[in-house]
Amino acid sequence: MRQKLNAKYLRFQKPSVSQLKKLKRQSIYLVLDNVLDTYNIGAIFRLADAVAATGVIICGRSETPPNIKIHRAAIGTEEWVPWQYQKSASKAVKKLKEKLPKLKVFAVEQSDKSVDYRQVDYSFPIALVVGNETSGVSDEVLELVDQTLEIPMWGFNISLNVMISLAIVLWKAMEER
User: Fold this and answer.
1) What distance in Å separates the CA atoms of residue 137 and residue 102, rounded to the nearest whole number?
2) Which pLDDT score, from 0 to 100, does residue 11 have?
3) 3: in domain
4) H/E element holding 174?
5) Which of 71, 92, 127, 169 lies at a CB distance of 3.0 to 4.6 Å from 29, suitable for a disulfide?
6) Residue 43 — left, alpha, or beta (φ > 0 → left; ψ -120 to 50 → alpha)?
7) CA 57, CA 128: separation in Å to the nearest integer?
8) Total domain count for the chain?
9) Distances in Å between the alpha carbon of 55 and those of 25, 32, 153, 158, 161?
10) Strands 26-33 and 126-131, bridge-based pairing
11) Residue-level pLDDT at 13
């Protein structure tokens, strides 16, 4: 029998300190380059929790917790998923690369340099950068990443929501870990 996920079931109690210490975090960093929609930010916290990402780095003009709209979309996951704020995504990427020399940084973005996300080696540690809902990942960040990844589109629409795009790429990375 399938279990129906109701609001009470989804919004379980915050994990205990000992539960959080036992959680094996994946070497995945999610970098938000001026993501403005608080629903997207909250949903990205849920994604980060789902894959046990090491952390979320919120950059630029993006809202940060505590924020009621982020909290609602995140269903509380922003309270235990590690996150930080950086003034710019380029600064965040540079700091990550200094801290983790083997880190591969991927931008999820359409460009003339993009490769199909299914054709990439996702050897951890990795950072995935998503950008502003209208203007995408900034040019400054695109110059710093190791590869730009694109999700093929077969219809008339030429783009997907940032959170959806991130989820697709994250699951591919997790399949290959």
Assistant:
1) 22
2) 62
3) no
4) helix 162-176
5) 127
6) alpha
7) 10
8) 1
9) 9, 11, 29, 29, 21
10) parallel
11) 77
Whole-number percent of the chain with pLDDT over 90:
89
Concatenate the DSSP letters of all residues of 11-28 into one string: SPPPPPHHHHHH---EEE
Tokens 């040019």 sit on residue: 139
Which helix (H) or strand (E) is 86 found in, with range? strand 83-86
- For residue 142, the domain's CATH number is 3.40.1280.10
Q: Omega of the bond prior to 152 within 30 degrees of 0, cis?
A: no
> CB under 8 Å to 4, separation ≥6 — which residues?
none
**In the predicted structure, residue 177 carries a pLDDT above the cut 90:** no
DSSP 159-172: ---HHHHHHHHHHH
The reply to whether 14 falls in a domain is no
Q: Measure the CA–CA gap between 147 and 4, rounded to whole angstroms.
A: 40
pLDDT single digits (tens) 38-92: 999 999 999 999 999 999 999 999 999 999 999 999 999 999 999 999 999 999 9
Model confidence at 3: pLDDT above 90:
no
Average pLDDT, the chain: 94
In contact, 177 and 26? CB cutoff 8 Å: yes
User: 153 φ, ψ to 5°?
Assistant: -125, 135
What domain range includes position 77? 24-176
